Structures are given as structure tokens and as C-alpha cells.
Amino acid sequence: MEITLDQDWIEAFLLASVRMVAFLIIAPPFSYNAFPARIKAMLGLGLGLAIAPQVSEGYNALGTGAFFMAVVMELLVGAALGFLVMVVFSAVQSAGNLIDTFGGFQLAQAFDPQSMVNGAQFTRIFQVTALALLFASDGYQLIIGGLMRSFTALPLTGGLDLAEPVSALTGAVSQMFLASVQIAGPLLVVLFLADAGLGLLTRVAPALNAFALGFPLKILLTLSLASMVFLALPRIVSALVSAIEGALAGVG
């Protein structure tokens, strides 16, 4: 019995799987350390198997040296795309960090080894909530769909023009800062007005020592008004997923 192996298909499958695995290791929500590395590798192989019929069309087998160079290139492409998703998704974490800073929670920082996030309460709460919303709303499927479409913009062995990823990354960083300010903006305005009011009260009645009440008052305002930000998180995560999907398809 003879078994015929299609070398072109096998190489295309392996290269696609390398890009998938590199992406899943870096990009949220798949980068969460609670997911075992074996699961990420198996998921990457499964996605590579799904996209193999598309990427193997017109693919020609490479020599040994050229194939290993292509593997390194696909690692770089997958890592770059995953880092792009991570930057866009960091807007939620940055918004929580701003609330912690202005609300007086920054002194209670802790490192979360699962999400690799170093921050206070709202930083970690926003991060976990956004991850839960990604799975509850099937947003992760849109991210995977955007990754699948990246093979059209960046085909296998097609090389990588650094100008396009750098431009996309610059836009993603700008969007991340803008989105984080927009998410935490209403609460930050309230906390700023509270500081301004305490400053005026100190000038009018210095004996009251109003700034001694500043920390508990700001913490009370933050806890009372944080629900407003949580109510907007589903729409925020949906907008970020749409931006991630467009960024993945547009890099090329």
C-alpha cells in the first residue's frame, strides 16, 4: 500500500500553524496563562488545519533553508499581529489604571500572574471583565476571523513590509490612549471636581483640613460611580473587537 503525501499542503499547513500559535501566545484573550500551553498549541494546529486548503493553493514547496527562514518569518508575523491585538485591547486595562490613580487605589498594587498585569483593583477588575465579555459575546471568534483574513493581506512566504505593521501599531497605540481616556473620562472629571472643591474648601476654612478627608471621599465617589463605567463595558469591548478585526485584516 502506498501513501502519497502532498508536500506543498504539509508545508503550508505547518507555516500557517506557526503563525497561529505565535498569535495565540501573545494576543488576548488566548494569552491568559490559565489556558495551558498544550491547549494553545492544539488550537493553533486546528486553526492551521482549517486554513490549510486556502493557503496551500498556489504554494510551492521550499528547500530546507528557505523553509526554516519562512518559519521564522511566520513567527514574526504572528507575534506582530498578536502584539497589535494586545495593544488595542490594553485600552480597558489602561482605563482601570487611570481610575486607580485618580481614585486613590494605586497604593494597593498587586501582580496577577495569570493575566501578567501589575495594577490595583480596578485595573485587574476591568481586565478580567473584558476577557469574560470577549467569551460571553463571542468576540474571540471575530478576532480569530480577523486572523484568518490576515493570510489574504500577508500570504505565506510573501515577506513582511515593516512599514505597514509599524503604521498600524502607531495607530493602535494612539487609539489605545484615546479609548482609555474616553472610558474613564466621566469618572475622572468627577474626581477632579472633588479635588478642586476640597482645594477651595481648604482656602476658605483652613482649620477644617479638608484634604484629610480627600482620600476616603474620592474612594467613596469611585466606588459609587464605577458602575457607570461597567455599564458601558459591553459596548466598549464590542468597539475594540471591531477595531482589532479591521487592524488584522488591514495589515499587509
Automatic annotation (TrEMBL):
Pfam family, one: Bac_export_1
Family: Belongs to the FliR/MopE/SpaR family.
GO cellular component: plasma membrane
Keyword tags: Cell membrane, Cell projection, Cilium, Flagellum, Membrane, Transmembrane, Transmembrane helix
InterPro entries: T3SS_IM_R (IPR002010)
GO biological process: protein targeting
Superkingdom of origin organism: Bacteria
Protein name: Flagellar biosynthetic protein FliR
Residue ranges crossing the lipid bilayer per the database entry: 12-32, 67-89, 125-148, 168-194, 206-233
Membrane topology qualifier: Multi-pass membrane protein
Compartments in which it is found: Cell membrane
Coiled-coil zones: none
Source species taxonomy: Bacteria, Bacillati, Actinomycetota, Actinomycetes, Micrococcales
